[in-house]
Every structure is written in structure tokens, then in C-alpha cells.
Design a protein that fits this description.
Layout (H helix, E strand, L loop, with lengths): L17 H7 L4 E3 L10 E5 L10 H7 L4 E5 L15 H15 L4 E6 L1 H12 L6 E5 L9 H9 L1 H12 L6 H14 L1 H13 L13 E6 L7 H10 L4 E5 L6 H4 L1 H13 L13
Helix pairs in contact: 2-11, 3-4, 5-6, 5-8, 6-7
Length: 283
């Protein structure tokens, strides 16, 4: 279907799956074990600052039994060539190009932390491409202290260790935390710094009431980096949004309590009654 002034799926891509199209565009992507199934909903997962598609490994396979699950590497991350971006709007514009090439429905976007900011931006700028959104461990404003941004330049590895220390709930597996730190370090200081700079520049507090898509919000009850109060703000601002506070989890909620997380995501995507948005009242 042609959309005026936009990139669309080419004729040679008509028989290709979304993952095949992304690989053709040199985008790092991980898909569910059964590949693409025509007619099943697509869930596109966007990682957070300094992350990569691997962050969603606890969702890709379990949710992939009924949903076409796709996790991507943002520019400059994982297997997607750089450079990275220093604004949420730039990342969202990049996502839009991918969605237009995929040209598939129903399509749900799920983002974690910075990825959640990208999803909010997408819901505001091109809602016609989406069927619903899932916001995990994020907020309408993601403020970062100036000294923290500076330390990512001057004391990168030490700062990453500090981030990971606060990213997990108390009692988290040290091996899991070590793996998380290694993934962020592999992204490199320039990309990670610009990701957090993009977060710091993001503020959609006054615009979220314009989002009319079905929305699921999730947050770990022990999240220290994007505390539950930010998710509460999202719920109050986005009409009809559902909020699930996940126990025994911190900022990495989709890893720390993946069973409860996956159950909520599955129901939101697969059960229409979970996505009902109240009609707007006429003035």
C-alpha cells in the first residue's frame, strides 16, 4: 500500500518476512524460533541505552510461540552499523523507515527504558503504523545528571558498573549483572554517552494525552533508574493505559521476572479485551 511521501516495501520485498527485510537493510535482528507466520501479530522490541537485541532473549522464544517476535539492534548497537543517535526523535525516525518497509499489521512496539521513550515518540508521530504500544521501565521524562554524562566520557567502565549496580533488584544473580555490564561496555563510550544524552533531552510530559493507541505500562517495583512513579505518570497521562507493577524486579524487569512480564505482554497482544481504550468524551 502506497503512503505519500514515505518509504514503502519494494516489489522484491513483497514475499520477504520482516526479519528478512531487516537483514537486507543490514539491521541486527533476532526473531522467534518458528520464523514468520502470516496473520499472527508482530511484536517489535526496542532495547534501552547501550543495549542490543539480546536483552529480549527471555521474550523472543516464549512469546514467539504465538506472536511474531522481533528484537532489533538500534544504529551503532550490536550488529547494526553506526553511528548511534543523540536524540529520541532520530531513533524514532529510523524506526519509522523500518516499519514502512515491513508494511505489516497488527504491529505492536515494545520498548525498554530509552526504547520506551522511542516508542512514546513513535506513538505520537506515526500512530497509524501501530496497533498498540508497550512501555517497560520508562517515563515521560528521562532526566540524566550532567556529571553522570561527563563520567561516561571520562570513566566509562566504572560508570557502566555503577549503572548495572542500580539496574537490578536486590539479590540479583551476579553472573546476570556481569553479563549486562559486558553488553553495555561492548557498545562503547560514544554510543552509550549519546544514548543517555538522548534520554536527557527527551520530555513528552505535555503531549502524552494525545496518544490514542492501546497501551500497556510495566515497571519493576524495585526499579531505581526509572522508578514506579514515572510509570504512574505515564498511566495518568495516556488515556486508557494499563499499568502492571512487577514484583521481585528492578529496572531490568523483562529479565528479572520474565514469566509475569511475558504473561502481561501475551494477554495485551493476543486478547482484544485487554486493549480497549475508553472513547473520548465529547465536550
Amino acid at each position: 500500500m502506497q503512503r505519500r511521501g514515505s518509504i514503502v516495501k519494494r516489489e522484491d520485498e513483497a514475499s520477504m518476512s520482516p526479519a528478512e527485510i531487516m537483514r537486507g537493510l543490514k539491521i541486527g535482528v533476532v526473531e522467534g524460533p518458528d520464523g514468520y507466520r502470516e496473520g499472527a501479530p508482530v511484536l517489535l522490541m526496542i532495547h534501552g541505552a547501550g543495549g542490543r537485541a539480546q536483552m529480549w532473549q527471555s521474550q523472543i522464544r516464549p512469546l514467539g510461540r504465538e506472536i511474531n517476535t522481533l528484537a532489533i539492534d538500534l544504529p551503532g548497537h550490536g550488529k547494526t552499523p553506526g553511528p548511534g543517535r543523540d536524540s529520541i526523535g532520530s531513533y524514532a525516525a529510523w524506526i519509522r523507515e523500518i516499519l514502512l518497509r515491513m508494511d505489516t499489521k497488527p504491529l505492536f512496539l515494545m520498548g525498554h527504558s530509552m526504547g520506551g521513550a522511542i516508542v512514546q515518540e513513535a506513538a505520537l508521530l506515526f500512530p497509524e503504523l501501530l496497533s498498540g504500544i508497550i512501555l517497560a521501565s520508562t517515563g515521560p521524562r528521562l532526566q540524566v545528571a550532567p556529571q553522570f554524562l561527563e563520567s561516561l566520557k571520562n570513566r566509562f567502565e566504572e560508570t557502566v558498573e555503577t549503572i548495572i549496580k542500580y539496574a537490578y533488584a536486590s539479590g540479583a544473580d551476579p553472573v546476570l549483572m556481569g553479563q549486562g555490564a559486558q553488553l553495555m561496555k561492548e557498545a562503547g563510550p560514544s554510543v552509550v554517552h549519546d544514548d543517555f544524552l538522548a534520554c536527557n533531552r527527551f520530555d513528552r510530559r505535555n503531549e502524552l494525552s494525545r496518544i490514542e493507541l492501546p497501551c500497556l505500562i510495566m515497571c519493576g517495583e524495585q526499579d531505581k533508574l526509572a522508578p514506579p512513579s514515572l510509570s504512574e505518570e505515564l498511566k495518568k497521562a495516556i488515556p486508557g493505559a494499563r499499568f502492571v507493577l512487577v514484583p521481585s524486579a528492578g529496572h531490568m524487569v523483562m529479565i528479572e521476572n520474565y514469566r509475569l512480564f511475558n504473561e502481561a505482554v501475551h494477554d495485551f497482544v493476543m486478547v482484544p479485551e485487554c486493549r480497549i481504550v475508553p472513547a473520548k468524551r465529547l465536550p
